[in-house]
Amino acid sequence: MTIRMGAALAAAVLMAGTALAGQGPSSAARARAEALVARMTDAEKLRLLHGLFPPMAAGKTAETLIPSAGHIDGVPRLGIPTLRESDASLGVANQVEQRKGDVATALPSSLATAASFDPAIARAGGAMIGAEARAKRFNVLLAGGVNLTRDPWNGRNFEYLGEDPLLAGSMAGEHIAGVQSNRIVSTVKHFALNAQETGRGLLDARIDEAALRMSDLLAFQIAIERGRPGSVMCAYNKVNGDWSCENGFLLTDVLKRDWGYPGWVMSDWGGVHSSVKAADAGLDQESGQELDSSVFFDRALAVDVAAGRVSRERLDDMVARYLTGLIETGLIDDPVPARVRPIPYAAHAEVAERAAAAGIVLLKNEGGVLPIAADAKRIVVIGGRADVGVLSGGGSSRVRSVGGAPVEIPLSSGAAASFARITYHAASPLAAIRRLAPRARVTFDEGRDPARAAAAAATADIAIVFATQWTTEAQDVADLSLPYGQDALIAAVAAANPRTAVVLETGGPVAMPWAPQVPAIVEAWYPGQRGGEAMADVLFGRVNPSGRLPITFPRSAERAPRARPVGLDTLTELEAQAAANPANAGAATLRSFPVEYREGADVGYRWYERRGKVPLYPFGHGLSYTSFAYRNPVMTGGHGLSMSVEVTNTGRVAGADVPQMYVAREGGGGPMRLAAFQQVMLKPSETRRVTLTAEPRVIADYDTRLPGWRIAGGRYRVALGRDATDRTMVQTVTLDGATMKP
How far apart (Å, rounded) are the C-alpha atoms in residues 216 and 620? Predict the structure, then answer.
């Protein structure tokens, strides 16, 4: 097809095309992989296509099993190494201390990294955790979570990178590239539409192709182009009727054909349901075989190949893709050390602290309550276990951090009970505040009694309430209210002291009925093992907050696309039935159910704009202790879209701003989409001209008839703003039509 475009647009498309061409099956890595496959026996091939789950795999290999997520035996005679896999995105996980005494550096949540709007932060975090994985003898990190946030109550939102495909894909790609700079493999996951945890292994996510291509799949596509992950992990759920791990449209048509992806597709743990259908659909490797109903990719696959139900060519392709991933990342030529290596934990803690500080979002700051005045004499810190540490999210990503876990509470029930605990990192905000205010009287109230906390706050120069919401993989949040009566606590403290600041440690958006009465609100997410220090630095102005929301905060759950997790009410009823009749508990089983994503490509802020709903805090929002001005914008249209603008720090302290460019076709009826962003650090009175170049696929719509991307020629509205609702600087530009491959 003909592609007509000019310099800016052509450069962007050429860059994407070059990345894909470099990953083509005719590459040198693929040729080398095929040469290895030609020398292998069938038994050796099959050995590479199914992995063990070490906690349940004793005696199944002659190799050393490290208690972790996964293990795949190698082929020593051909130089193919054994793979040892670990969870992942936030650090080298050791969830329930299966490796006694083994600690690692804990990054803040991925949502916090996304809030930095700084790809360099994502890359540095990935490089750091990749280095630790290698030193601990792991050569695969199950990282790269890039599922878009479609609902604010998803229990796993903290592991992902927000609701926008450009932001999420860009940040995920840099994180993956950072991990793989250590010559180990990173995955990208969970492919695709794993957008809720309730019934994740049963639900059927339904959406039309164009909408899927323009939202969740675009995030994956950008992440793969930028990060070049060695492997893609398919998801638990169904998509439009087929399990993700046996979905030919996703794995073969989109990933391998349209995007030219050369690496291997691994399953999620317990996500395989067949041998023939899965193999022919594009699944290359069964992970954690003990968690499936049967081992599908060992003897069963061998029988299917012998019977011709799976072709020998497909078997060889599965192995070649696996080896291509190992070759392209450098893993096969630079094996991990045979013994654990020393790790510079102090230096790595600095990486974690910088990421935590960069992701903190100042949501509100009326009356200059923050930063805390240098002459404050009495500071009251309330709630959130701030005397001992900061909260961590739950599930497979949880890191047992350097410094230990001062609070660790096992779960007595629920889908996450076997592998998740409510855990805190030993990074006390109270201790950090005391270090920064040695002359002030800093007291602590645990916040269990609102009246007592209010009395303690009444005479303080400032009251700081730390509020927490724990979320976890495998379970969604029933509602967005802060648990344990914290809303009443905050309201009582704010009524007693007009200089109250609330610091949130949450897995995503929460309801804030007290927001009108609280002058200062800070979102710190799950800030990792140096979160206490990072939060204190922001509260006292040692670090100027620069985070921006990567996710919309609705005014209430009822204003979100879905007020509650789909299927949760049914699941709760079935659990009650099973508890009431244990002898017949097996009859109370949740069955597959549909989740209709009727918002289509209009995820997050796009949905709110289309519906005319005003959020509590919009995507892209974030305040600073300084101020910025945009002047003299210059727009370039025609064959491509770019905008340059002078950004000036008009305040008294240095700070970082994030100019954001949103685009919509005039008269098209659709909401504006984030097409470009860039963080810029400026000293007081400093001016710098920033150029924003639009990602062409964000401007385009996906046309299934081409098939491919189509930019309609005509006039477009372009907003330069500080968040997704900012329309103070809007211009129009005319673009020529263009088409691009899928």
Answer: 19
